[in-house]
Amino acid sequence: MIDETYNEIPVIDAVETKSQYRHKKTGAIYKTKEEWQKLGIPNEDIAQDVTVIMPPLDLFGKTS
C-alpha cells in the first residue's frame, strides 16, 4: 500500500541552480572553485552559496 502512494508523487526538477563561493572573512565573491583554489585560499575560509530556482507550483487543485 505504501509503494502505491510513492509512485503517485511527482518528481519536480529544479529549473536552474546558481553557485558562488564567498570568502568568509573578506566577503570576496568567486564564481568557480578553481578561481579561489588558484589563490591558495584554504577550504575552511570559503562558503558555498547555492540558489535553487524551482518551477511554480499549482497549489489549487482543478475541479470538474
Task: Describe this structure as you would to a colleague.
The chain is α+β, with helices and mostly antiparallel strands and 64 residues long. The chain has a domain at 14-53. The chain contains 2 helices and 3 strands, in the order H-E-E-H-E. It has helices spanning 2-7, 33-38; strands spanning 16-23, 29-30, 46-53. A 3-stranded antiparallel β-sheet has the order 2-1-3. The longest helix is centred in the N-terminal third of the chain and has 6 residues, at 2-7. The two termini are 27 Å apart.
Silhouette: elongated
Residue-averaged pLDDT: 84
Compressed to H and E, one letter per element, the order equals: HEEHE
Describe the sheet with the most strands: 3 strands, antiparallel
| Low-confidence residue ranges | none
Class by SSE composition: alpha+beta
User: What's the Cα radius of gyration?
Assistant: 20 Å
The end-to-end distance, rounded to whole angstroms, is: 27 Å
- Strand count: 3
Q: State the helicity in percent bands.
A: 10-25%
Query: How many helical elements?
Result: 2
Note the beta-strand portion: 25-35%
Please state the oligomeric state of the protein chains shown.
single chain
Main-sheet strand order equals 2-1-3
